[in-house]
């Protein structure tokens, strides 16, 4: 991992670079002065049911036997 020195601007913003432009991230304050920033994806509320064991099982069965 390469160490980079960045300055937090007067408005509290920090630039991570253009390769992350438009990405969603989570920011976790681990301790005073220590943050963990991770890229993330968001699941819309009305699609959360797809991320359940029951839905996964049903989708797995459909992949194995699409007719049945």
Q: What's the quick description here?
A:
The chain has about 70 residues and is of the alpha+beta class.
What are its keywords?
single chain, 68 residues, alpha+beta, 1 helix, 22% strand
Describe the 3D structure.
- It is built from one helix and two strands.
- 0% of the residues are buried.
- The chain starts with 23 loop residues before the first strand and ends with a helix.
- 18% of the residues lie in helices and 22% in strands.
- By secondary structure, the chain is an alpha+beta fold.
- The protein is elongated and about 60 Å long.
- A two-stranded antiparallel sheet has the order 1-2.
- It has a domain at 20-64.
Strands, helices and their partners?
Layout: E1 24-31, E2 34-40, H1 53-64
Antiparallel strand pairs: 1-2
Could you spell the SSE succession in H and E letters? Answer: EEH
Q: Treating each run of at least 4 consecutive H or I residues as one helix, how many helices?
A: 1
Report the C-alpha radius of gyration, rounded: 20 Å
* Arrangement of strands in the largest sheet: 1-2
The structure class reads alpha+beta
**Mean residue pLDDT:** 90
Largest sheet: 2 strands, antiparallel
Beta-strand portion reads: 15-25%
Number of distinct beta strands: 2
Shape: elongated
The first-to-last residue Cα distance is 50 Å
Helix content: 10-25%
**Low-pLDDT windows of residues:** none
